[in-house]
Amino acid sequence: MLKYIVKRVILAIVTIWAVATLTFFLMNMVPGGPFLSEKAISPQATAALEAKYGLDKPLFQRYLTYIGDALHGDFGDSLKQRGRTVMDIILMKFPVSARVGGISVLVSLIIGIPLGCLAALKRGKFLDSLISVIATCGIAVPSFVICTVLMYVLGVNLNILPTMGLTSWKHYIMPVMALSFYPTAYIMRLMRSSMLDVLGQDYMRTARAKGLSGVVILFKHALRNAILPVITYVGPMLAYTVTGSFVVEKIFTIPGLGGEFIRAINGRDYTLIMGTTIFLATLIVIMNVVVDILYKIVDPRIKLK
Fold first, then answer.
1. Per residue of the chain (305 residues), what is the pLDDT tens digit?
2. Which end of the chain is more exposed for a tag (fewer CB within 10 A), N or C?
């Protein structure tokens, strides 16, 4: 187990380094520059700004400097928000995105797992068909369409929920609904197919032959094995709720990291783009490592190599 964890951590470090390297060189290949604006500045002013932020140095030297600083958690200063570091912006904005995304993940698991189990138990019946239709719609419809429908129905027509900001618990309802709709639908389909496979195993027939109740069979014997694919999906799902929240944050005017990332792209704030990308990639890699380890904890029969 310890050997496997060490190997996964090393692989995670290599992955993060590859993402950081690719992001750095891609940013420097983008035409134009961070100091371009509608009002042209003099070449002398541009040269002074490039010297201030180290953009006048050779590319490989800047790469080594950037990677060295990033290892200490320093992604440099923002090129547009003068006097603020990239890490300060991330630490201030990410908790907002994390709250919305975290609540969405919990809602997806709480709703998706029971409904997927219920669809498997009621296979071929009306309830199974209804859940399948909802799951298909949830996977097919993008989040920005869901945002628009929610704002029109709940915010404009019924006027029962606020449509902008994040200052009270009511402000969380529509963003969480929009973010959790797709992962809930995916978990429902995943849980249904996995549960159907488990319910057909020999040990499930033995449990039914012993006279165990359906609830005991479902939650004590079947769920633990059927939930393994859902655990695998938790890592990518966290990535979706964080990166997918960029669009949702923009629509609902949520002061999270997504809005800062979009503004950084529009303003060519290269350091903020690179820092945010590396930060999110690190988060995704860490969650995938945790999920791989949880696999062994949930099912000891799995052999880690």
1. 677 778 888 888 899 999 889 988 888 777 666 666 545 666 666 677 667 666 777 878 888 888 888 888 888 888 777 778 888 888 888 888 888 888 999 999 999 988 988 888 888 888 888 988 988 888 888 888 888 899 989 888 888 988 888 888 888 999 999 999 989 999 999 988 888 888 777 777 777 777 777 677 777 777 777 887 887 788 778 767 776 677 888 888 888 888 788 888 877 788 888 888 888 888 888 888 887 777 667 666 666 55
2. C
CB atoms within 10 A of CB 193: 15
User: Alpha carbon of 272 to those of 16, 88, 200, 205: distances in Å?
Assistant: 17, 10, 51, 57
pTM, whole model, 2 decimals?
Answer: 0.79
Tokens (6 digits) for 4: 């496997």
Tell me how far apart the alpha carbons of residues 257 and 143 are, in angstroms, rounded to a whole number. Answer: 17
Give the C-alpha distances (Å, rounded to integers) separating 34 from 61, 84, 171, 272: 19, 16, 34, 11
Rounded distance between C-alpha atoms, residue 117 and residue 219, angstroms: 10
- Contact of 250 with 100, CB cutoff 8 Å: no
Backbone angles phi, psi at 77, to 5 degrees: -90, 150
DSSP state of 77: B
**Spatial separation of the C-alpha atoms in residues 14 and 286, rounded to whole Å:** 12
Give SS3 for 56: coil
CB-CB contact of 233 with 186 (8 Å)? yes
> What are all long-range contacts of 128-135, with beta carbons under 8 Å and residues at least 24 apart?
128/192, 131/188, 131/192, 132/189, 132/192, 134/185, 134/188, 135/185, 135/186, 135/188, 135/189, 135/192
Handedness of CA 112, 114, 119, 125 (dihedral sign): negative
Q: At what angle do helices 86-121 and 257-266 cross, to 10 degrees?
A: 120
On whether the CB atoms of residues 172 and 166 are closer than 8 A, the answer is yes
